[in-house]
Amino acid sequence: MRNIIYWIFSAFLTLAIVVVSLRYITNFWLLSFVYSFQIHLAAAFVAGSLVILAVRRHVYGFALLLASLFLAAHGLIMLREFAGEDRGTGTAPLFRLMSFNIAIDNWKNSTAIADMVIASNADVVNLLEAKPLTFHLQRLFKVYPYHIGCDHGKDSCDTLVLSKRPFVTRQVASIGSLRKDRLVAASVDFGGHTVNLVSAHLTKPYFDDYQVEELEDLGKALGSISGPLVLSGDFNSSSIAPGVRALLRTQKLKTLAPEPATWPIAAGRFGIAIDHIFARAPLHLKSLKRLDDNLGSNHSGLIAEFVLGKDGETGPAQ
User: Fold this and answer.
1) Could you list the residue ranges that cross the membrane (predicted)?
2) Residues β-bridged to residue 1
3) Signed CA dihedral, 212, 36, 33, 272: sign only
4) Model pLDDT for residues 125-163, shown as the tens digit of each residue
5) Cβ atoms within 10 A of the Cβ of 21, count?
6) Do 109 and 65 fall into the same domain?
7) What is residue 109's DSSP assignment?
């Protein structure tokens, strides 16, 4: 009986390890979300391997344990690949940015969210699924007189970018073919330095291959932008998902590691980061934190500070 239990457990664990390991062969859209949880799943595989070895000590159980440890270790290595240099001391931040998917049905917390945005002291705020703030826009515009989005009533209020400084350039575009106007590209002058700000909201990766198209379009948009760059928003995928990794590598984007977990809310800091703030040199992240309260959203928001490196002389944004 012990032998039967051993091989049944081993078969299930083998199948699970194979599914996660498919990332090394193919970036199949249906498994992209699974890839985002590689570290969490690998930890569960390690625990499962130990249970199997407790049932019966056999070389195959040790092979499963080694495979599980490899998946966990490689996941941690991937998290560090796009970690920028520590810029936390000695330099005053150039500006402060908040990014938050407030959830499109989060009406009952809209007043508290507006209060939080106003009190944040952020120079730029990137709000996604911003429809619940429809009745608070005028109050927000008094603090943030420059905005992109929410110009034609609540039905147009999806991505809302707020700024205390005027926009040098501004553009709203679509990425992929599923949803419209979920890419905002703008630039703002901070003390003589023009910084490009891009907001993106990607589709969930298990909605067919729409996210694959969106990442391709986003890469083309970022590739046409020169100079200091911030990319923020809801990617619905971890930075270890193959498609996101390809974008970060190609566009030379960095973040601070470990990124704060933003989903699921119930998991707290043991969740995964599917909301991101990235920077491209000569701009660097000085700090990156999760907001203290999700205020009814199914995502946690992020707030970051940025500094320019020694190569920080910038010209007009393009």
Assistant:
1) 6-26, 33-53, 59-79
2) none
3) negative
4) 999 999 999 999 999 999 999 999 998 877 779 999 999
5) 14
6) no
7) G
